[in-house]
Amino acid sequence: MADYERIKQPFEPIYDKDSRILILGSLPSVKSRENGFYYGHPQNRFWRVIAGIYGLDVPENVFEKKDFLYKCRIAVWDVIESCEIKGSSDSSIRDVVAADLNTILDKCNIEKIFANGKTAGRLYNTFGKAKTGRDIIELPSTSPANAAYSLEKLMVKWSVIKD
User: Fold this and answer.
1) What pairs with residue 115 in β-bridges?
2) Cα–Cα distance between 11 and 14 in angstroms, integer?
3) Residues carrying an active site annotation
4) CATH numbers and ranges of domains, the chain
5) Could you tell me which of 40, 89, 84 has the C-alpha nearest to residue 65?
6) What is the secondary structure of 89-148 as a DSSP string?
7) Is the pLDDT of residue 1 over 60?
8) pLDDT tens digit string along 36-69?
9) What is the phi/psi pair of residue 11, to 5°?
10) What's the CA gap between 12 and 20, in Å, rounded?
11) What's this model's pTM, rounded to 2 decimal places?
């Protein structure tokens, strides 16, 4: 297995003044960093799940993905600003520096915050909640590593983002 590497969040948060939902991951995977955008692993089901819930086409490139998020009034970022990690293994995350989530929360009227997976939820509760004073709703991870959930099961669980 790879050695620990210090990773800094490579992506800016995606949001605009109309964003109402904030979805937080832990940190972009190696594949997402290689592909230059959130949830960039070809087997990650994030884009298919959100498209299915909103009845939209799955966005293909970064421009389409940003536009898609704005249309759905969804902000996306990660709980971690930087950390040490082995590859893309969430279980190896250590020495966390948390992102300043108020960067988004101070600029738009976020109604609910969701975690994409247990790790993002745990990290938010450890590092973010005290600073934001807001609860997070944990959803099952859209990662290909979460084999327990089919695309259909994920869509059912994730449909709460539209409530």
Assistant:
1) 24, 138
2) 9
3) 44
4) 4-162 (3.40.470.10)
5) 40
6) -GGG-EEEEE--THHHHTTS---EEEEESHHHHHHIIIIIHHHH----EEE---STT-TT
7) no
8) 999 999 999 999 999 999 999 999 999 999 999 9
9) -115, 145
10) 18
11) 0.95
